Amino acid sequence: MISSTRCNFLGNSGLGGCGNVCGGQRRGSGPWRVSCMSPSNDRNGSVVMETPLKEIKNEPVVEDVDNNPISGGGPRDVYGEDKATEDHSVTPWSVSVASGYTLLRDPHFNKGLAFTEKERDAHYLRGLLPPTTIPQETQVKKMIQHIRQYQVPLQRYTAMMDLQERNERLFYKLLIEHVEELLPIVYTPTVGEACQKYGDIFMRPQGLYISLNEKGRILEVLRNWPEKNIQVIVVTDGERILGLGDLGCQGMGIPVGKLSLYTALGGVRPSACLPITIDVGTNNEKLLNDELYIGLKRRRATGQEYSELIHEFMTAVKQTYGEKVLIQFEDFANHNAFDLLEKYRSTHLVFNDDIQGTASVVLAGLVAALKLVGGNLADHRFLFLGAGEAGTGIAELIALEISKQTNGPLEEIRKNIWLVDSKGLIVKSRKESLQHFKKPWAHEHEPVTSLLDAVNQIKPTVLIGTSGQGKTFTKEVVEAMASLNEKPIILALSNPTSQSECTAEEAYLWSRGSAIFASGSPFPPFEYKGKVFVPGQSNNAYIFPGFGLGLIMSGTIRVHDDLLLAASEALAEQVTEENFEKGLIFPPFTNIRKISAHIAAKVAAKAYELGLATRLPQPKDLEKFAESCMYTPAYRTYR
Ligand SMILES: O=C([O-])CC(=O)C(=O)O
Ligand SMILES: [Mg+2]
């Protein structure tokens, strides 16, 4: 790392011997960047030269600096990335240069064999690479072949992570150009397995770990992250990783995966993304008894101990990155997820992906499905298996949308939406006390204990699985849906594949080809009686990257439910006639960057309308603006 050089570009740090790495004589000719010096050095003495950033501002060394209007208003580094602008007296940041061996080792700047002859001379690379030059397009071709040679998805995942560690721009170009193929590798379902084995595959830090050991020092921990201009944080406490349960500290794979999608699908700069895992212990016995477990070996903190740590974190984030940093809560357990969202939604820019992102994507799918089944949302009856974050989040957003369409009262609309949890249908007469998020869904009905009975009695037109329990949409359940409806809508949303309520094949087979089916994890197309059925993937990955981009580019300071409805509508608009003909209620991921720009524009437009956007004046064409803001991973030329 550049940081280990302890030099700054003025070359007079007092350490001497900087050589190629940061020789002041090469100022203006090397790829300068902001880098970190050892914090202890900074605090104990004065080895860090506090380089006035403006000195290098006008000395770009890359010819095609990203012209990204949302990179913040502050000074940009020579790569078009933002510079640290904070007070240098409290943080150990300086400016140094990457060149030669260090340059090849820096994933942000490394281009591998794509370095030209001129660049090899200018940046002390001669001899460090074999003589041939291979452009990025060819590298992509080579890399996809390399990935494909692995048969096991986890090996492909590891190969992708290795690439991200080595050459970030190649990683993103590969991911963007082969998104349908690689999404199931870097994201759901393979990322689930990666989390289960994270201890084995963990190599280098991919994000920040904030544990109870850091209580009282979170500000300091945030300052250890090498990037300063953070725009999106995805944070988990690992308690409910997908449908896999408590994976403790190993949940880190999820924020890392989600943020890769923020960049690949939503065009947010990688350097603006920060994955964080909060480690308050784990209740997973297997991990507690595993001597190689990477997290805190204690049971989960709860109550005040938990909320104090989270509060310190939330406060420190705002203090460090300002109030426009988006904090995405991911895979928290129900009992914390709702409370955290409620507590921080009026003071921070927070978004819960599992409650709000999933709701927005499912609503989009349902709106699109109406084109195939007819009627309005208000004409349908909904039954959920699972009454946690996703179930109640989706239910509430559907009710909200119907209420907007019909001007009807929410309490009445909710009566057409039913939820089943582990104890059966949620009804008013249930003796045990209900958690607060389930209460709006307790309707008048006698107790019903099984899902099959609930289907037969409620007669839903739409069945949605958010239970985290695999194989719960049995043959009888799917057959009952098919006997009640000409075209039953069946969404098996739990992740990863093993937790899916049923497979695409089962849904099509058992409904004799009548089901309109989508799932959280991807399934391959299925041929039934000569017809090919292509299942849609109802995953929040459609929403959060574009949604986040919309918030960032408009400088929005709070998330309002209407923004989720706007995102949902924007996604539904992107389903084409051609998609409908295949029975699809979601567009393919191949066009996702265009879709994200569209979602971002609609979200930003709504934020301006609600007075929540602070970036003024409002750009005239928000979709064009969104596109112009998006990071593209083409290599840059170094002078
Ligand atoms: O990560 C995914 O694929 C979707 C999601 O948020 C979850 O299942 O928790
Ligand atoms: Mg999630």
Automatic annotation (TrEMBL):
> Which Gene3D superfamilies has this protein been placed in?
Malic enzyme, N-terminal domain, NAD(P)-binding Rossmann-like Domain
Recorded catalytic reaction(s): these are: (S)-malate + NADP(+) = pyruvate + CO2 + NADPH; oxaloacetate + H(+) = pyruvate + CO2
MF-aspect GO terms: malate dehydrogenase (decarboxylating) (NADP+) activity; metal ion binding; NAD binding
- Annotated residues that bind a divalent metal cation are located at E330, D331, D354
- Keyword line: Metal-binding, NADP, Oxidoreductase
Gene Ontology biological process = malate metabolic process
The family database entries (InterPro entries) matched by this protein are listed as: Aminoacid_DH-like_N_sf, Malic_enzyme_CS, Malic_N_dom, Malic_N_dom_sf, Malic_NAD-bd, Malic_OxRdtase, NAD(P)-bd_dom_sf
* Active-site residues, record numbering mapped to chain: Y187, K258
The Swiss-Prot or TrEMBL record lists the needed cofactor(s) as: Mg(2+); Mn(2+)
Domain Malic enzyme NAD-binding stretches? 355-608
Domain Malic enzyme N-terminal, residue spans:
164-345
Q: Which GO terms describe its cellular component?
A: chloroplast
Instruction: Please state what the protein is called.
Output: Malic enzyme
Gene source species? Pisum sativum
